[in-house]
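Before a computer can learn anything about folding, someone has to put a protein's shape into writing. The outcome of that step, for a single protein, is printed below:
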Amino acid sequence: MKGPFTQDLSSRSVRVRILSTMLAFIAGGLLIAGFVSYYVQFTVLDDRVNAELLQEVNEFQRIAELRQSDVGEDESTEDLMRAAIESAVPGEHESFLAFLDDRPQFKPQEQAFELDKPETVEQILGTHAPGSTIFTDLEINGEAVPAAVASVDLYSDDTPGIFVAANRIQSQRD
């Protein structure tokens, strides 16, 4: 037996099902769009940090080339490292360190974080490869920090050097 409200209840039931299905699709679409946006944003951040590290290494190479043409064969690794660190202006998430004979020697007066702690120095020396630049992550205070570890060898000086630029990416994500 059909009552007067039976048809209205069944039609509302179909409407409610259609509405809930539409809301589920909309929520799923928003969730997917949010995930894609998050992924793209942090991929771009990673790429930007890597580009900044490469830029720092390229700037160091330019300083070395300019000093070599100005000073000539009398250039020492120590003078080059001092000049490079004095001209470096670390950003709010960057730090630099220059080594001579596998010992940290020069760093900017103000920088975002320290690279000359013994455990960090061990990581840098373990990563260093003479004659090349290595892009790696250093573990600093429990955080992976992207870094460029560049070998410095001058024809005019046998003293080996290492130039390190690091960029704390996690502080940019927060």
Q: What stands out?
A: The helical segments are 6-71, 77-87, 118-127, 170-173.
